[in-house]
Design a protein that fits this description.
The chain has about 250 residues and is an alpha+beta fold. It is about 20% helix and about 25% strand. A hairpin with a 2-residue loop joins strand 8 and strand 9.
Length: about 250
């Protein structure tokens, strides 16, 4: 009898110790020595703040210009983009052709950069023939349109002291899917040589400039007619007809 009471007391004590130990671990805690399995990503609730400290831009909207080869959203002050065809090693010059106006004399270009050169016979009291030049530099070269226009207008002086930009006229055409900017202005043409080694152009007290920039996919082409006022004015229709005949070769 005494032995049975002793065993019952020991068993009761062991049960109390086991229950107390289980309460300390908690119902989900595995017993000592077992392997703990991490919950899968599907089981874990998503944490919207995860990685925010490591990546401060996490959650920011994607850049709509990324990968498009476009300037940044505030890109008016960004430098011009390099021509993608030139960067890829493709054809760096869009080849153009056009119809020569009747009566214009095509000449051997005076410099390698000139793709064509013409003489236009003088009219009225003008002292010399007018000249037409066609120039291109290839993809990504040649400068901006406005810089070229300002350079051209800077070659003329106004007898009344005004700026040539104040009397210049501008217009635009669309030819073969390409934008063409046309600028025209009267004034005194200083003349002289534009580049070392080139023959000096004649000066015209009563001169006129008529020029165009053809915006091709691989850089601009520049068509420029300069000479006496009467000659250039009379050649205006032929010049514009030539521009409208431009097509890609």
């Amino acid at each position: 009898m005494n032995n049975r009471r002793y065993l019952s007391s020991v068993a009761a004590s062991a049960l109390i110790v086991c229950v107390a130990s289980a309460c300390q671990r908690g119902p989900a805690e595995p017993p000592p020595g077992s392997r703990v399995e991490s919950p899968s990503s599907a089981q874990r609730p998503a944490n919207p703040q995860a990685g925010a400290a490591a990546n401060p831009h996490a959650g920011a909207p994607a850049d709509p210009h990324a990968g498009l080869g476009l300037p940044p959203p505030s890109g008016n002050s960004a430098p011009p983009l390099a021509n993608p065809a030139a960067a890829a090693g493709g054809d760096t010059v869009t080849q153009l052709e056009w119809d020569d106006p009747p009566g214009w004399r095509r000449e051997q270009p005076a410099s390698p950069m000139r793709r064509a050169q013409y003489k236009v016979s003088k009219v009225g009291a003008d002292p010399a023939d007018a000249e037409v030049t066609v120039i291109t530099f290839g993809g990504g070269q040649g400068g901006g349109n406005e810089a070229n226009i300002q350079r051209w207008l800077g070659q003329l002086e106004q007898p009344d002291g005004r700026q040539t930009t104040d009397v210049a006229q501008r217009r635009s055409l669309t030819v073969a899917g390409m934008n063409v900017l046309v600028v025209e202005a009267p004034g005194r043409i200083r003349g002289g040589s534009m580049m070392p080694g080139m023959a000096a152009a004649p000066a015209f007290d009563r001169g006129r400039l008529l020029a165009a920039i053809v915006e091709t996919p691989n850089g601009p082409w520049f068509f420029k007619l300069t000479g006496g006022d009467e000659t250039v004015t009379s050649a205006r229709t032929a010049f514009e007809t030539m521009l409208r005949s431009i097509r890609r070769r």
